[in-house]
Here is the input.
Amino acid sequence: MNRQRLLRQILGGSKNIAFTDFVNLMHGFGFKLSRMGGSHQIFKHPNVKELVNIQNVKGKVKPYQMKQVLSVVERYNLKLEEEN
Here is the structure.
């Protein structure tokens, strides 16, 4: 899914977001997968102090984890890169 469209959906209140689409969105903000631990995927960003954790639950991302990621994006003023 297009990153801009997905971001608009999330900001519009959608909670039914595919895990793979959300990971693509995180890559668009510059996050890279650091490691995996069980069902958790830990992401890091070169300009962000804390690590970000998301889980794949039946192909969806947990809504509270989406909020946490968007909070980090806002706090660090990260910009969404266009897709190739």
